[in-house]
Amino acid sequence: MRAIVYEQTRRVGVHDVEDAVLEDPTDVVVRVTSSAICGTDLHMYDGRTGAEPGLVIGHEPLGVVEQVGDGVSLVEVGNRVVIPTHLYCGVCFNCVRGYTAACLRVRPGSFGAAYGYAGMGAYRGAQAQLLRVPFADANCVRVPGEPFDDREDDFVLLADAFVTGWHATELAMMQPGCTVAIFGAGTVGLLAAYSSLLRGAGEVYVVDYIPERLDKAGELGATPIDFTDADPVEQIKEHRRRAGLPIGEEQMDGVQKGIDAVGFQARDRHDPARENPTQVISDLARLVNPTGHVAIAGVYVERDLHPAPEGSADGHLQVPWATLFNKGVSVNFGRTHDRRYTTRLRDLVVAGRAHPGAIVSHHGALDDAPGFYDRFDQRADGVIKAILRPNR
Ligand SMILES: NC(=O)c1ccc[n+]([C@@H]2O[C@H](COP(=O)([O-])OP(=O)(O)OC[C@H]3O[C@@H](n4cnc5c(N)ncnc54)[C@H](O)[C@@H]3O)[C@@H](O)[C@H]2O)c1
Ligand SMILES: [Zn+2]
Ligand SMILES: [Zn+2]
Predict the structure, then answer these.
(1) Which ligand 1 atom lies nearest to the CA of residue 168?
(2) pTM as predicted
């Protein structure tokens, strides 16, 4: 089969590799119709995570089941399925409590796993023609319709981006009427904004500096904030004050919910050419109101091969702990427990109430992947979300 393989820092290639096959009775093999490229792949692409050359990458697949192991009872050949990024067993102590990204059985000696990701278990990636899916009864989520119908993009985003945007709003303990600020207008930030609006947020601000991404935030119904215009914290407070703060809440001119959809490769506000991994948490600590909540959905790594000056090789970062403590702000972290949300968000799509595919900017074949990676890494040419179609 053909697959996208990590070759070296800032270089991926299209390679012929061994076909994905059934290895355990509880596996299925899926023929991938769509496979998205994610900001998470860029942490590897940028040479930060120690990915080994030869790794098949990708963790956001939609496809059709082609082979079924003897021990699988809920999935059949021909089923159209989306596969959550973080694979899980479904029955361990953490899985049964809904913490599927911390499954205790998919990565022996540790917890949680993902397809095609350095340090997240020996599972080959999904930017390939075929994908082996372990514990298939748990990991295959059926979706209706036919491959390449008008919901193909909506469904592929259920693998990671939409559920992660939604998870961020859960971590932020979103309530109707809330004020929300989201840092990062990549797919995760945009779909966190979209999820916030679906959940009835009153005001949603999205901070970034890439024009096409800020425009997309505006199209979705959020207020875009360009951090290169001025301090984004002051811009948002000024916006709120101008609109008129509710009576009795004049001192609460920040926001109630803050979301980090950027992670450890955040850009420095004063010099976006360089990274500053504490930029976003510092801004959020200033912006979030007393009693508010911060959700950290952006990735932070325990092993960074080339840390920025404010960063560290083992992820020990200096954050404004005292400000957060004094304000009584709760900070919630983490990988998405995908499976909590996949079916409900699928049903929102099926009901015509959600259309996350609106943020997809590019489609291509596997051969287009090296170019997409390059332009996505530069955040250039309006590449927000590129979807590969490996079998077309
Ligand atoms: N928690 C999870 O399970 C999970 C799942 C998927 C992705 N992620 C992570 O979420 C993050 C975002 O993913 P994505 O696909 O949207 O990536 P992306 O790289 O497309 O988007 C990140 C955006 O952040 C912007 N940005 C950089 N510095 C900023 C700053 N100081 N303030 C505001 N915006 C800034 C960039 O310009 C970019 O548009 C990544 O770290 C990714 O690894 C986490
Ligand atoms: Zn992803
Ligand atoms: Zn488990």
Answers:
(1) 1
(2) 0.98
- Residue 233 beta carbon below 6 angstroms from any ligand 1 atom: no
* Closest-CA residue to 131 (of 214, 209, 64, 230): 64
Residue whose tokens read 């170019």: 371
Whether the CB of 266 sits within 6 Å of ligand 1: yes
The whole-angstrom distance between residue 172's C-alpha and the CA centroid of its chain comes to: 15
CA distance 115 to 129: 14
Question: What does the pLDDT read at residue 310?
Answer: 87
In 3D space, the residue among 163, 116, 156 whose CA is nearest the CA of residue 33 turns out to be 156
Ligand 1 atom index nearest CA of 161: 6
Number of H helices and E strands in the chain, helices first, is: 12, 17
335 lines ligand 1 (CB under 6 A): yes
Place of tokens 């008008």: 150
Q: Please give the distance, rounded to the nearest whole angstrom, from the Cα atom of residue 261 to the centre of ligand 2.
A: 12
Measured between alpha carbons, how far is residue 324 from residues 111, 209, 256, 257 in Å? 29, 26, 13, 13
pLDDT in tens, 369-380: 999 999 999 999
Instruction: Walk me through the domains of the chain, giving residue ranges and CATH numbers.
Output: 2-160+337-388 (3.90.180.10), 164-333 (3.40.50.720)
For residue range 225-284, what is the model confidence (pLDDT) as tens digits? 999 999 999 999 999 999 999 999 999 999 999 999 999 999 999 999 999 999 999 999
- Alpha carbon of 245 to ligand 2 centroid (Å): 37
CB 48 within 8 A of CB 10: no
**Nearest-CA residue for atom 11 of ligand 1:** 298
Q: With a cut of 90, say whether residue 387 has pLDDT above it.
A: yes
